[in-house]
């Protein structure tokens, strides 16, 4: 695996907003077919890091490499055109639009020509439903259903299936399981595994260690804008990671108190 | 089949229309049910409905346009000044009037996309600006607040005549515009962008939709529609007044809301807007046939509006939870 360069790599990325330094020399790699879990408490700089990966923010200094070559993203659209897709906590979709319509927002399939162009509802619905079912969500079988009628897990799955359908190579999942129940979260984790199996590079952002351990190959813990620990699967226990995220001994201290 | 029709978001608007129509039919009798009644509410629906269509598009996209109330008289006075006061050809006056609408719409769209001012406030601002300019220039040029115009027979027939002396030609313009907007919103991919814009602007932009251009197009369409009604008015009445048009601001918004468009944006349909417009027009005109004090008409419209807003959310929830086939247990 070390022979192919990582799909996306950050080298010594710093990001500051005016006088406030948010990220300090962040270095990360994510390989194709691998899940990188980015762990961190609220305010650790996770969302700034995601936005830097997705082209929303430009790093103040440092390098971004795609397939081993240095690059910069001029904006979110540039990043997504090069295969970096971000899926937000609530799926980033349109609750009152149908599955078929929301799947193809901005890239609507049409039939007819010139001024008589029509949105091809039938084809949009078929492709959208097939894309979601290929990810194992067989319960979605009607492309006319409104996205708002889907469960949280199904919405996430729809958004991930959409990103994959449109050629994403790097999938950034921003707290996909945070607002979900146990069953729904398991559902999303299965989708993450499926995306990984298909050879996507996945960046999975979460503060739920259990969820990270279930799918992650590689872990990075972010504390106050810096990488506090960087390790591979099986190198640390759940307790160690939780303690790291909480900034040291807090959790162990709490447990000791309760005895 | 019937159940799925009931679940359509327009079902509420349709039921409202049936109730209102039966109510006024019972009070108004054969006169309301015959040609006088129909022409009276259809004429009203055509005028307000023409403006309500693009207002509906804007509201689906999460924006408002108050300035239509000032664009309408600005357009009719422009036409009247060019072709009445200066006696230039009427086609030039019509083009001038419509251009005023497109221009104000363009300014609205640019300001809405370039600033963070909510469109409600912004278009109130442009409304007062356009009002002041209209009044100032009219007095400066014509020396009064009203300008007369004698239209040529062809323009009069196309824009200002009435079939059988009752059904204004504007009804057909309205129906044509309904077909165009329905095509744009529900058939053409452009409509998908409008819904996406109202659903989540950030996601829409990330999906590659040219959101700024889309907003400007919609404001130009509403400016054009208000100007069209203004131009048609000056041709059918033979004069233009500075004070005309303000009733269209709230009336067009009410038609759209009664028609089931969500105030928060993201949902609505042309069928709903047309039903809302007809409901509004039936109440507005039916009251004169009913023998009731005309002032009660406003109470009914107010009640309809509130009922519509309450039921819109209910129908929306039903639509969202609706699954066509019986799937496995949730």
Spatial order of the strands forming the largest sheet of chain B: 1-4
Rough outline of chain B: globular
SSE string of chain B, helices as H and strands as E: HHHHHHEHEEHHHHEHHH
Oligomer status: heterodimer
Main sheet of chain A, how many strands, which sense, barrel?
6 strands, mixed
* Cα-atom radius of gyration of chain B: 21 Å
Distance from first to last alpha carbon of chain B: 24 Å
Please give the share of residues in helix of chain B.
over 70%
Could you estimate the helical fraction of the residues of chain A in percent? Answer: 25-40%
* Overall spatial form of chain A: globular
Strand adjacency order, main sheet of chain A: 6-9-10-3-11-12
Q: Could you please say which CATH topology of the domain at 8-92 and 169-258 in chain A applies here?
A: Rossmann fold
Question: Layout of SSEs?
Answer:
The complex is a heterodimer of chains A (259) and B (330).
Chain A: E1 8-17, E2 20-30, E3 34-40, H1 46-53, E4 61-66, E5 69-71, H2 76-81, E6 84-87, H3 99-103, E7 110-111, E8 118-119, H4 121-134, H5 152-165, E9 170-174, H6 182-197, E10 201-206, H7 209-215, E11 218-223, E12 226-232, H8 238-245, H9 250-258
Parallel strand pairs in A: 3-10, 3-11, 6-9, 9-10
Antiparallel strand pairs in A: 1-2, 1-4, 4-5, 7-8, 11-12
Helix pairs in contact in A: 4-5, 5-6
Chain B: H1 2-7, H2 11-33, H3 35-60, H4 68-85, H5 90-114, H6 119-142, E1 146-148, H7 153-159, E2 162-163, E3 167-168, H8 170-187, H9 189-199, H10 201-206, H11 211-237, E4 239-241, H12 247-258, H13 270-290, H14 296-320
Antiparallel strand pairs in B: 1-4, 2-3
Helix pairs in contact in B: 2-13, 2-14, 3-8, 3-9, 3-11, 3-12, 3-13, 4-5, 4-6, 4-11, 5-6, 5-11, 8-9, 12-13, 13-14
């Amino acid at each position: 695996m070390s022979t192919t360069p990582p799909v996306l790599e950050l080298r010594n990325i710093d990001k500051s907003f005016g006088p406030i330094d948010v990220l300090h020399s962040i270095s990360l790699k994510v390989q194709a077919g691998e899940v990188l879990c980015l762990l961190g408490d609220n305010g650790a700089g996770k969302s700034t890091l995601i936005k830097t990966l997705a082209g929303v923010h430009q790093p103040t200094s440092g390098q971004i490499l795609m397939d081993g070559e240095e690059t910069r993203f001029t904006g979110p659209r540039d990043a997504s055109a090069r295969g970096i897709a971000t899926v937000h906590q609530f799926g980033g979709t349109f609750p009152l639009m149908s599955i078929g319509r929301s799947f193809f927002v901005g890239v609507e399939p049409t039939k007819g020509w010139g001024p008589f162009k029509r949105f091809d509802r039938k084809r949009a619905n078929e492709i959208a439903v097939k894309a979601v079912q290929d990810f194992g969500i067989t319960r979605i079988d009607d492309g006319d259903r409104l996205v708002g009628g889907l469960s949280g897990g199904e919405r996430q799955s729809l958004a991930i299936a959409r990103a994959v359908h449109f050629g994403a190579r790097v999938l950034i999942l921003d707290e996909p399981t945070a607002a979900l129940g146990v069953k729904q979260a398991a559902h999303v984790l299965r989708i993450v595994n499926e995306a990984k199996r298909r050879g996507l590079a996945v960046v999975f952002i979460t503060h739920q260690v259990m969820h990270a351990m279930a799918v992650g190959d590689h872990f990075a813990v972010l504390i106050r804008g810096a990488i506090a620990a960087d390790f591979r699967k099986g190198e640390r226990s759940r307790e160690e990671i939780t303690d790291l995220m909480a900034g040291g001994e807090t959790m162990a201290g709490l447990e000791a108190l309760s005895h | 089949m019937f159940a799925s029709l009931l679940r359509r978001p327009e079902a509420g608007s349709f039921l409202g229309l049936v109730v209102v129509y039966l109510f006024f039919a019972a009070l108004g009798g054969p006169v309301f049910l015959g040609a006088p009644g129909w022409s009276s509410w259809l004429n009203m629906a055509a005028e307000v409905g023409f403006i309500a269509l693009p207002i509906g598009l804007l509201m689906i996209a999460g924006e408002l346009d108050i300035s239509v109330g000032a664009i309408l008289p600005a357009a009719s006075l422009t036409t009247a000044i060019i072709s009445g006061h200066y006696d230039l050809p009427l086609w030039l006056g019509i083009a001038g009037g419509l251009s005023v609408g497109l221009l104000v719409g363009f300014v609205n769209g640019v300001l809405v996309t370039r600033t963070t001012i909510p469109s409600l406030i912004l278009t109130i601002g442009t409304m007062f600006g356009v009002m002041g300019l209209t009044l100032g220039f009219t007095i400066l040029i014509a020396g009064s607040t009203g300008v007369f115009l004698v239209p040529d027979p062809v323009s009069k027939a196309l824009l200002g005549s009435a079939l059988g002396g009752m059904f204004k030609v504007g009804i057909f313009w309205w129906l044509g515009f309904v077909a165009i907007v329905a095509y744009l919103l529900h058939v053409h991919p452009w409509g998908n962008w409008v819904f996406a814009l109202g659903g989540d602007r950030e996601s829409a932009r990330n999906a590659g939709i040219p959101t700024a251009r889309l907003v400007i197009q919609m404001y130009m369409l509403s400016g054009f529609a208000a100007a069209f009604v203004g131009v048609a008015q000056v041709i059918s009445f033979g004069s233009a007044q500075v004070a005309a048009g303000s009733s269209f601001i709230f009336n067009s918004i009410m038609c759209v809301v009664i028609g089931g468009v969500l105030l928060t944006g993201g949902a609505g349909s042309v069928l709903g807007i047309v039903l809302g417009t007809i409901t509004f027009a039936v109440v507005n005109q039916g009251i004169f046939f009913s023998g009731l004090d005309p002032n009660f008409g406003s109470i009914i419209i107010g009640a309809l509006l509130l009922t519509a807003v309450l039921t819109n959310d209910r129908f929306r929830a039903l639509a969202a939870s609706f699954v066509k086939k019986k799937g496995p247990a949730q």
